[in-house]
Amino acid sequence: MRAFLFANPAAHSRSPAMHNAAFRHAGLDAHYEARQVLPEALADAVAGLRQADVLGANLSLPHKEAALPLMDALTPAARAIGAVNTVIHRDGVLTGDNTDAPGFLEALRTAGDDAHGTALVLGAGGAARAAVWALRSQGREVLVLNRTYDKAIALTRDLGGVAVPPAGPVGWERVALLVNASSAGLDAPHESPLPDLPRLAPEALVYDMVYKPAETRLMRDARAAGYRAENGLGMLAQQARLAFQAWTARDVPITVFLDALARPVRPEGTE
Ligand SMILES: NC(=O)c1ccc[n+]([C@@H]2O[C@H](COP(=O)([O-])OP(=O)(O)OC[C@H]3O[C@@H](n4cnc5c(N)ncnc54)[C@H](OP(=O)(O)O)[C@@H]3O)[C@@H](O)[C@H]2O)c1
């Protein structure tokens, strides 16, 4: 059996390491391969998933939104968020799912979040949409703060929550969960989406979806101020575990995925 990642670029991805470790752990004769797929080749690549020996695929940048009309069916999460990160193939039928959202909630739970209290999401792109949808499904108050205010307004119009104007009052002291779903800090150890971290609720959790570097400036600032802080590796592993489960009906322990992420990337960058 086979499963794929379609992305552009694709060579840097850690998904093959996670899924091939999970296939080995489950004793399944299957292989996961990352393929660089250009936007104009996405429809053909997706059509190829209907072959009998294909379990499905993950989609990453820039394909998560573009794949929606190529699916035969969508899960409620994928439809509401407007993005597909996992395609499940069964008997020629392709179902588009979004495991980023439940993977994010599972990672929060593991990090000690109690699913209560006001959450503030930084960013308004695809990752922020998954986070807001997931947090709203917990019935939480969700604030969205983005560099470009209009995008935060559009996001909250679609998914609920309240867009906060960048220069306006936020009420930071009631924020029990701060989520960085922006790209700020990615591959930039000195960059933070909040260069002056405001005072949050006592015991607040700061969850940074960025995981490169493993400790971001936002995490460092949060820990220095006495808050808990986690990077996005847990979410990355959990979304993979849930995709694997959807393809194989096997629940491989999260440690298998996390251990695969902890191993160094092979020199050719294609593990
Ligand atoms: N851990 C995981 O499993 C996981 C999963 C998905 C994504 N992610 C991470 O989440 C981040 C966002 O991904 P995405 O797919 O949502 O990207 P995206 O759709 O391109 O959105 C990027 C967002 O970041 C904001 N932004 C970019 N640079 C910024 C800066 N210097 N300061 C403040 N805001 C900035 C953008 O603001 P504007 O609207 O103003 O442009 C936009 O809201 C990435 O770092 C990605 O690696 C992690």
Automatic annotation (TrEMBL):
Which residues are listed for NADP(+) binding in this entry?
G123, A124, G125, G126, A127, N146, R147, T148, Y149, D150, K151, M209, G232
Report residues binding shikimate: S13, R14, S15, S60, N85, D100, Y211, Q239
Q: Pfam families, from UniProt?
A: SDH_C (PF18317), Shikimate_DH (PF01488), Shikimate_dh_N (PF08501)
Residue intervals of the Quinate/shikimate 5-dehydrogenase/glutamyl-tRNA reductase domain? 114-162
InterPro entries attached to this UniProt entry: Aminoacid_DH-like_N_sf (IPR046346), NAD(P)-bd_dom_sf (IPR036291), SDH_C (IPR041121), Shikimate_DH (IPR011342), Shikimate_DH-bd_N (IPR013708), Shikimate_DH_fam (IPR022893), Shikm_DH/Glu-tRNA_Rdtase (IPR006151)
Keyword hit for Oxidoreductase: yes
The molecular function terms of the Gene Ontology recorded here are: NADP binding; shikimate 3-dehydrogenase (NADP+) activity
Statement: the UniProt record of this protein carries the keyword NADP:
yes
Domain Shikimate dehydrogenase substrate binding N-terminal stretches: 5-87
EC annotation from Swiss-Prot or TrEMBL:
1.1.1.25
Its function, per the record, reads: Involved in the biosynthesis of the chorismate, which leads to the biosynthesis of aromatic amino acids. Catalyzes the reversible NADPH linked reduction of 3-dehydroshikimate (DHSA) to yield shikimate (SA).
What is the protein's name according to its record? Shikimate dehydrogenase (NADP(+))
